[in-house]
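INTERNAL TRANSFER SHEET
From: sequence group
To: structure group
Subject: DUF2382 domain-containing protein

Please process the attached sequence and return the structure record in the designated field. Keep the field labels unchanged so the import script can parse them.
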Amino acid sequence: MANNVIGVFDSASVADEVISDLTRSGFDSGVIHRYEGNSSDLESELQRSGLSSGEASEYAGSVHQDGALVVVQADDARTDEAVEIMNRYYTSSGDTTSEYASGYETQATGTANTGDARLDVVEEQLQIGKREVQRGGVRVRRVVSERDVEEQVTLRDETIRIDRHPVDRTVSGSSDLFTEQTIELTETDEEAVVAKEAHVVEEVVVGKDVQERTETVRDTVRRADVEIEQLGTAYGETLAGDERYAGREWHEVEGEARTNWERDNQGKGTWEEAQGSVKGAWDKLRGKR
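Return from structure group:
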């Protein structure tokens, strides 16, 4: 937390010495601010540095015409060090007042050799943020299944037939019958040729209307389907209906439920993703919603 350590000095030269001492002690020059007492806009400048309107008015009125005011922004660990440095010049010169604003709702004053040192406290305002917490989810995935199909087809088979018949006839005027001769015939059969063609039979669009069309396919085909799974809902309903958990509260069964989920649902999401849905289904069936 940053605190404002404020020193009001009657001499501008003393203020310069304070700034030099602060710088040598490791305070960054960017957190040290010096304001002249003869500045007509001193009050406005103090407000721009983070002081309230009342504080700025009070401090501006306490600086003499030839004096100066030094403001150091220091964290909790170095606030006392900054006060000590300013008080060195306060106790030695006798013409300086050092003041200190911290983060508590108390106000303290201290006394030195020639005057009082006032400790002003600045209260931090609480800032509340938001964070998102997972309470479950929905998984949409495509799975592949198979089914057998049958179709009738007519095929033709050829078979060569050889018939031999006894005959008795006279060969007349030709000697070609004693020349070698070969006759070849080929049997041709038909066999089924199967081809597969993928057809889109359904379109599933998450969050939108779905249009479908159906076609006839042949032989064994695969189907890419869509399953919508509410993570943990069925499991939570099963737990709520299990007699082993009758009369028990959720916090009493949560550890065992998580162990069983992680054992039986590998690859179906983590327990952190499903926990909200599981407990929601449990509470609903137990009448807590």
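Handover comment: The longest strand covers residues 138-147. The longest helix spans residues 76-93.
Transfer complete.
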